[in-house]
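In response to reviewer comment 3 from the previous cycle, which asked for concrete evidence that the modeling workflow produces usable outputs, we include below a single protein chain processed end to end. The sequence was submitted unchanged, and the resulting C-alpha cells are shown without manual editing.
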Amino acid sequence: MNKIFLIIQREYLSRVKKRSFIIMTIIGPVLMAAMIILPAYLADWSEATEKRIAVLDETGWFLEKFKDQDNISFYYVFDDLDSEKENALYKNGDLLLYVPRTELNIPVNSELYSIKQPGLNVTSYIKSVMKQIVENKKLLASGIDPEIIKSAKVNINLSTIRVEKDGIEKKSNTEVEVGLAIFSGIMIYFFIFMFGVQVLKGVMEEKSNRIVEVIISSVKPFQLMLGKIIGVAFVGLTQFMLWILLTLIFVGVFQTGMLTEGNSAMEMLGSKNEILQNVSANNQGVDPMIMVNEIISGINIQVMVLSFIFYFLGGYLLYSSLFAAIGGAIDHDTDSQQFMLPVSIPLIFSIALSGVIVNQPDSSLAIWMSMIPFTSPITMMMRIPFGVPLWQIGVSMTLLIAGFIMTTWFAGKIYRTGILMYGQKVSYAIIWKWLTSKY
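The workflow returned the following C-alpha cells.
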C-alpha cells in the first residue's frame, strides 16, 4: 500500500508542477467565464450594424407596412427594378426588397437583393409582415374582421410543478433542466477523455523510454497501474475544483463591474426606485429573482454536485484503467486509435442518445443506460436534473464501483504482460490470450 501511495504522490506532484498544468488551470476558467460573458457582448456588437432596406412594391399591398426595427430601417422606392438595384445595392450599399406585380394571384412571392447575407432577423421580419398583411386581406375578402381573429389569440403560460412522493410540490423549468442535463453530460464526457488520455500517454511514454523496466523492479505492475490511475485522478479533481473556483471569481468580478456601471447609468437616467417600479409594472408584478429561486429550488443542487464529482471520478477510474491497459499493450501512438475506439463507443453512444434521454428521462432505455457502468456516468448526469429516485442513483453508483473493480482486474492482466513487451504487433487475439492466461 505504501508503494502505491508513493506512485500516486509521484504522479500527482510531477503533473501539477508542470507549466502546462498551471497554464491550463488559469486558461480553463478564463475560457469558461468567456463562454458566459462574451455572448452578451457579441450579441450587442453584432447588432450594431445598421441595415437599410429599399422596398419596391409593385402591388401596393405592403406600402408603409414595414416599420423600422432595431438596426433595420425601411424606405420605399418606385422606379424600375434595374434602376433601383443599381441605386440601392451599388450606390447606397443597401438591400432591395422587390414584390412583383401579379395579375390574378395573391402576392406571396418576393425577392430580397443584397450584396452580403442579410441575416435571419431581416428575412424573418419581412416574411412575418407579408404573411400578416396577406392573411388579413384574405380574411377581409371572406367577410371576416382580422381584429376578431387577433383578439381571439391568447398566450398560454404553462408552469411545471413536480410533486414528490411526500407530497411536496416544487416548481420546475424544463428548458433549464434540459440545458443543465446536456451541459453535465458533455462535461463528464470531456473530463473522462481528457484525463483518461493522460494516463494512456503517460504509460506509453514510460514504456517507450524504458523507464518502466526500472520501476517494475521495485513495484508490481498492478500497483504501478493503480497508482498512476489514482494519481491522475487527484490531478483531475484538483484542476476541476480550481476551475470552478476561479470561474466563479471571474464571473463575480465581471458582475460586480456590470452592477457598478448599471447603478451609474440609473443615476443618469433618473431615480433608481422609479426605474425598478417601471420594470416591475412591465413584468406584471413578477419578480425575476423569485422565478430564479423557484427554478433552483426545483433542482436538488446538493445531489447534482455530489453526483457530478462521483460520476466524474467513477467514470474516469473505469475508463482510465482501460486506457492504461491500451497504453501498456502498444508501442506506438498510431496503434492507439484502433483500440481506443471500441473502448470509447459506450461514451459516444451516450452522447448520441442525449436527445432521447433528455426528452424521456424516465424511459426504460434511459434507466438501463444509467445503470450500465460504461454509460451511467453520462446518462445518469443527464437524468438527475429531472429528478431521479435516490435508490436508482445508489444502484447506479454501486454498479459503477463494481464495474471499475472488474475493468481494473482485466486491465491489470493486460498491463502486466504488455508493459514489458516491445516490438510485437498487438492484436485483439493477442490481448485475448493475455486475458485468458493463467499466470
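Strands lie at 51-57, 72-76, 95-99, 111-113, 160-163, 169-172. We consider this sufficient to address the reviewer's concern, and the full set will be provided in the supplementary archive.
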